[in-house]
Automatic annotation (TrEMBL):
Gene3D superfamilies: q2cbj1_9rhob like domain. This is 2OG-Fe(II) oxygenase. The lineage of its organism: Bacteria, Pseudomonadati, Pseudomonadota, Alphaproteobacteria, Sphingomonadales. The keyword Kinase does not apply. Its cofactor is L-ascorbate. Residues 78-199 form the Fe2OG dioxygenase domain. SMART domains: P4Hc. Keywords: Dioxygenase, Iron, Metal-binding, Oxidoreductase, Vitamin C. InterPro entries: Oxoglu/Fe-dep_dioxygenase_dom, Pro_4_hyd_alph, Pro_4_hyd_alph_FE2OG_OXY.
Amino acid sequence: MTVSRGLMPPWLVRHDLLSPDECRDLLDWALDNEAHFKPAALDKGLVDPAIRRSLSLRDLGPFSRLFEGHVRAMVPELIDQLRVTSFVAGEIELELVAHNDGAHFALHGDLYTGQGSARGDRLLSAVYYFHRAPKAFSGGCLRLHRIGAVPGDMGVDIAPDQNSLVAFPSWAPHEVLTVRCPSGAFGDSRFAVNCWVYRANLRQPSADGDQPPVAHIGDELDHVAATDRRID
Ligand SMILES: O=C(O)CCC(=O)C(=O)O
Ligand SMILES: [Fe+2]
């Protein structure tokens, strides 16, 4: 089967998502928690810096509620603007990522592959950007690609602007272009908060007692499921 290429996925950018105080507090919190960041993983917890190189923190502490609130409130607008089939939002998965010198993420989509995830289906992806001022890195654009893109294709580059959020359907092919950060200092990194909106599982156990195949909202999952994602 041949995939016809050409159509760009929809996306939107929102500037100034947080107040200046919130943005500064988030940076301070990220710097205070440097020791808790771990190499960012791919499918099934695999770390492969040739595909994805960055440092990740899965627990946003006091900022989880802030991001979950913002993103949940935006879901109706995102469904509308990104032309996603209407759905009821369930879990919102978060990840704080620091991209320092040489960091990147090769072409991929954010959907689960294989047997999927007990966590359910990701439908919307949103990424919030912040960094120290003055900015001490270059590069690191998010490159959105056409359907059926292959590595090396051109796409649309979205700059990781201070206090901005970009959103797109989770199926959209995208990559993070290589970051250059001459100081190598953690605090000079390109910071991003990944937010993934899941479809709520509204199915009830059937009358004969069978359980639905996916977990209910709020179920705790292991690190492997949390880091499972598709790499094209
Ligand atoms: O940092 C970004 O701009 C996007 C990161 C990303 O695509 C991912 O972690 O799945
Ligand atoms: Fe992604």
